[in-house]
Amino acid sequence: MIESRHTEKRSMMWIGGFKLLQALLLTLIATGVLAFIHRDVEAIVEHWVKILHLHPENIHIAAFLKKLGLVHDRQIEQLSGIAFAYAGLLVVEGVGVMKMKQWAKYLAAIDTAAFIPIELYEVTVNFGFGKLIALVVNVVIVWFLIRALMRDRALKRHPVSSLAA
Fold first, then answer.
1. Other beta carbons less than 10 A from residue 132's beta carbon
2. Rounded to two decimals, what is the model's pTM?
3. Residue 17 lies in domain
4. What's the pLDDT tens digit per position in 13-44?
5. Residues 100, 12: contact at Cβ < 8 Å?
6. pLDDT (tens digit per residue) in 98-126
7. Which residue from 56, 94, 96, 118 could staple onto 16, CB 3.0 to 4.6 Å apart?
8. How close are the terminal C-alpha atoms of the chain, in Å?
9. Residue 112, domain member (yes or no)
10. Do the beta carbons of residue 137 and residue 129 sit within 8 Å?
11. Structural domain includes residue 32
């Protein structure tokens, strides 16, 4: 039982670290998005398209650039604010899971599981290895969290028999 508890702690440290890494990346993205305020987003992205030697005349790229022209500063601020708020949630999850807090395991399991249907849809409709990896990682995280929650619940119900096992 002690060895499995050590393995669970190590798993929770990895999951918490992964959540903190997600928070860091999302914070960087949110900060980068703020750089587009009071700027011509369409012109900036069109410049990147040319640097990357993509064809701005491509119907998908042209449609994307046209939509970017409709983006206003208020929408950029809202998108950045949502990203910062979700990054904050990920920090809370990550630290809580690393500290083996029960509420954090529930929060992380629910939050992570909420994205699985979207990722499953994306993998089946527009397959990509990155999408498949994200799906598998999130399924594994939810599985570990649920297993830890079930073990914690069993320990609360039968503390003596669980320790003897």
1. 13
2. 0.77
3. 2-36+71-164
4. 999 999 999 999 999 999 988 888 888 777 78
5. yes
6. 999 999 999 999 999 999 999 999 999 98
7. 94
8. 7
9. yes
10. no
11. yes
